[in-house]
Amino acid sequence: MEFSSKLLENAVYEISQLPGIGKRTALRLALHLLKQPKDQTTALSTSLLKLREEIKFCSNCHNISDVALCEICANPKRDESLVCVVEDIRDVMAIENTGQYRGLYHVLGGRISPMEGVGPQNLTINSLVNKSKEGIIKELIFALSSTMEGDTTNFYIYKQIESLDLKTSTIARGIAVGDELEYADEVTLGRSILNRVPFENSLKL
Amino acid sequence: MEFSSKLLENAVYEISQLPGIGKRTALRLALHLLKQPKDQTTALSTSLLKLREEIKFCSNCHNISDVALCEICANPKRDESLVCVVEDIRDVMAIENTGQYRGLYHVLGGRISPMEGVGPQNLTINSLVNKSKEGIIKELIFALSSTMEGDTTNFYIYKQIESLDLKTSTIARGIAVGDELEYADEVTLGRSILNRVPFENSLKL
């Protein structure tokens, strides 16, 4: 693409550095901003800069938070003996939305992925292991994606806390509520049979 | 969506104001920026602000340009008696890419669309009409999208310059090079038969 304006070219280049946004979409977005009042561009730029400059993480669970101890960790009604291990804030938001969980979280900040250059030292695994040794936590629930990277991360953490007096579990894998059996993949269907639950349990929901 | 951080919530809100970007994508983009070095966010924000603050338009063709008279208008080798009327900079870039056009452009900045609140006064139509009266322009080529809004805009301009000694034309509509006839829509195919060109012309390309 050849641009008649260096300013426009720069803006398009920077927008297209975002994941999933190509040059054409970037140009469309830049031209859109030019047609809107200046305030919109100012608000967008300022909010991004502020986010990047002032972002804080909860000292206990490492979730994104504006205060030193996040709302969930600071809530005395939550069960601090139960900790759900997740990859990032989106997982926390998804689980919170269910309204089914009253424990705390531990946000790893990703998963071990040698392909993407993410090792255990890039995640908050040490902090989780140290917390586990304090004796307050009774159960760790692994809620990572069921991919090779997720499984590797689960196993890496498990190996480090194996010797501690701690229950570990993973969230149930199975057929989604409302899904038809015939369209489920074999691995999921197989796991849902192996990990079947007493029928009475489903009556309680 | 409930956020644990006001900073994140603001950033996601501002990003999701962009066309075609929903809350989930906005959150993904914001989390991506948080994982990248600070420089990237700074560069993005600065380029957007600079674009919006310092953008200039060519005084002759109204295309986006960093100088008062854009490169195309300032080029003495371009034919100033030929003016191609387009909607925005993307059309200029597309036509320039063909390498087939040696005239100048006139960028309208959109098309007449009562539904979107765009009237003739929001476009650079007056400037085009005034330019046409100066007598330097010999031909106007309408190259707007062939939609109802594009046709309305063409007709509106045509009515204002009808009395002048000026040739007007529109770009040819027809079957795209490489396309199969059987998949072409009827209107396009019909037009391509009506506006057929001497066979010898195609031999020259």
TrEMBL record, chains A, B:
<dbReference type="GO" id="GO:0006310">
    <property type="term" value="P:DNA recombination"/>
</dbReference>
<feature type="domain" description="Toprim">
    <location>
        <begin position="81"/>
        <end position="176"/>
    </location>
</feature>
<keyword id="KW-0479">Metal-binding</keyword>
<dbReference type="GO" id="GO:0006281">
    <property type="term" value="P:DNA repair"/>
</dbReference>
<dbReference type="Pfam" id="PF21175">
    <property type="entry name" value="RecR_C"/>
</dbReference>
<dbReference type="InterPro" id="IPR023627">
    <property type="entry name" value="Rcmb_RecR"/>
</dbReference>
<dbReference type="Pfam" id="PF13662">
    <property type="entry name" value="Toprim_4"/>
</dbReference>
<keyword id="KW-0233">DNA recombination</keyword>
<dbReference type="GO" id="GO:0008270">
    <property type="term" value="F:zinc ion binding"/>
</dbReference>
<dbReference type="Pfam" id="PF21176">
    <property type="entry name" value="RecR_HhH"/>
</dbReference>
<keyword id="KW-0863">Zinc-finger</keyword>
<protein>
    <recommendedName>
        <fullName>Recombination protein RecR</fullName>
    </recommendedName>
</protein>
<dbReference type="InterPro" id="IPR015967">
    <property type="entry name" value="Rcmb_RecR_Znf"/>
</dbReference>
<dbReference type="Pfam" id="PF02132">
    <property type="entry name" value="RecR_ZnF"/>
</dbReference>
<comment type="function">
    <text>May play a role in DNA repair. It seems to be involved in an RecBC-independent recombinational process of DNA repair. It may act with RecF and RecO.</text>
</comment>
<dbReference type="InterPro" id="IPR034137">
    <property type="entry name" value="TOPRIM_RecR"/>
</dbReference>
<feature type="zinc finger region" description="C4-type">
    <location>
        <begin position="58"/>
        <end position="73"/>
    </location>
</feature>
<comment type="similarity">
    <text>Belongs to the RecR family.</text>
</comment>
<dbReference type="InterPro" id="IPR000093">
    <property type="entry name" value="DNA_Rcmb_RecR"/>
</dbReference>
<dbReference type="InterPro" id="IPR006171">
    <property type="entry name" value="TOPRIM_dom"/>
</dbReference>
<keyword id="KW-0234">DNA repair</keyword>
<keyword id="KW-0862">Zinc</keyword>
<keyword id="KW-0227">DNA damage</keyword>
<dbReference type="GO" id="GO:0003677">
    <property type="term" value="F:DNA binding"/>
</dbReference>
